[in-house]
Amino acid sequence: MLPLVWRASSGVAGVPGLISADLETFAAEHTRRTLRLTGELLLILRRLDAAGIVAIPWKGPLLAQRAYGDLRARSFFDLDILLDRRDLGPARDLLLASGFRTEKPMTRAQQDVYVDHQGELELVRDEDDLWLELHWAVVPTYYAPPADDAGMISRRTTARLLRAEVPALAVEDELEALCVHGSKHRWERLLWVVDIAMLAQRERVDWDLLLGRSRSQGNGRMVALGLLLAESVVGARFPDAMIAALRQDGVAVALAREAKRLLFVEPDTRPDPFLFHARMRERTRDQARYLWNAMFTPSGADWGTVALPRPLFALYSVARPFRLAAKFGRRQLRRRDATADGGG
Fold first, then answer.
1. pTM of the prediction?
2. Is residue 173 within 8 Å of 210, Cβ to Cβ?
3. What contacts 327, CB < 8 A, 6 or more positions away?
4. Which is nearest to 46 in space by CA: 113, 118, 95, 99?
5. For residue 159, what are the β-bridge partners?
6. What's residue 212's pLDDT?
7. Could you give the count of Cα atoms lying within 13 Å of 105 in the half-sphere of its Cβ?
8. Order of strands across the sheet with 120-125?
9. pLDDT digits (tens, 9 = 90+) for 170-214
10. Taking CA atoms, which of 227, 230, 256, 258 is between 20 and 30 Å from 20?
11. Nearest 5 degrees, angle CA 41-CA 42-CA 45?
12. pLDDT confidence tier of residue 125, bands split at 50, 70 and 90
């Protein structure tokens, strides 16, 4: 949120000199980093386009430009690009040849299955620690039912980024993606709520299209949650009839209230995510699907435990519940010890 604090306080009388100086120092470094990352993104998009790959930048600098009208108004530390699933392999190979490496040490067979489950592949360039995520899905496929990601790509528009015209998600797709992404992470960052409020205020949104399409995908409650948070936390203005309709979903209202409270809670003290995530699904079959897949779909941590040959990949799913039980058991012990120390 520091870029917004800097922008809001710039030129305001009464800001203490030391704080003003620190904000200006931050702003100078932030501006340099933002321009560097934006330039890198444009170079990568040009490379992919030359190879015939449709690549849509997501979040990062393009969101800063679209939602805030100023690249400097939003922090971002990596670059995200949305691709068709069929293009992810060629894009990966092109970028590996240009100096990137895969962030997680996996065999190619492991990597293919991981990408199918996670919907993304993380790449890193060691020379400058540039982090790039290639997405074929907005969130992992185990988390949400298969979204209309191919449709999002076909409905793409264009947007201005510095002096370039780049592909961009339609604003309704962008808002749905941001709401689903924030819900996946249980709205841990206030910035994600502000993003939705700012983008919705600056762009012309077809609200009926957004709500209808998200409900058909089973993402309606997550979209409702994001919009209710933007309205209650940030003061975003939406059509009264739409907000009244969203408030008819008592679960969405309760989740928004809980997420608002958790915005200001230390991450380590947050409740475990499974029940929160399940409640964000409005369809019973999606709730059951999520809980089953969350329990048995391997994550990066599971793949990293041991390198198994492809015929034995099913063992990653078998081992996952035991790893999760150990992980959450240790977390509960830490919480119990912290409570005991606080009471002692």
1. 0.86
2. no
3. none
4. 95
5. 166
6. 93
7. 5
8. 56-58, 79-82, 130-135, 120-125, 101-102
9. 999 999 999 999 998 889 899 999 999 999 999 999 999 999 999
10. 230
11. 85
12. very high
Q: Is 280 helix (H, G, I), strand (E, B) or coil?
A: coil
Q: Which residues pair with 168 in a beta bridge?
A: 157
One-letter amino acid at 256 equals: A
Tokens at 266, concatenated: 């230390």
Q: Rounded to the nearest 5°, which phi and psi values hold at 287? A: -60, -45
Query: Which spans in 72-137 are helix H?
Result: 85-97, 108-118
Segments of the chain assigned E as strands: 56-58, 79-82, 101-102, 120-125, 130-135, 157-161, 164-168
Mapped onto helix, strand or coil, the DSSP state of residue 258 is helix
What DSSP element (H or E) covers 76? none
Instruction: Give buried/exposed letters for 53-82 (b at 16+ CB in 10 A, else e).
Output: bebbbbbbbbbbbbbbeebbbbbbeebbbb
Whether 135 and 122 have beta carbons less than 8 Å apart is answered as no
For residues 196 and 257, is the Cβ–Cβ distance under 8 A? no
The strand pair at 79-82 and 101-102 is best described as: unpaired
Where are the extended beta strands (E) located within 136-232?
Answer: 157-161, 164-168
* CA–CA dist 83, 88 (Å, integer): 6
Write the pLDDT tens digit of every residue in 223-265: 999 999 999 999 999 999 999 999 999 999 999 999 998 887 7
Type and span of the H or E element at 288: helix 284-296
- Look-up of token digits 């991450």: 267
CA-based nearest residue to 229, from 265, 272, 206, 261: 261
Bridge pairing between strands 164-168 and 120-125: unpaired
- The rounded distance, in Å, linking the Cα atoms of 337 and 342 is 9
Residue 323 has pLDDT above 80, yes or no: no
Q: Which two tokens stand for residue 321?
A: 């519940």
Q: For residue 317, which amino acid is it?
A: S
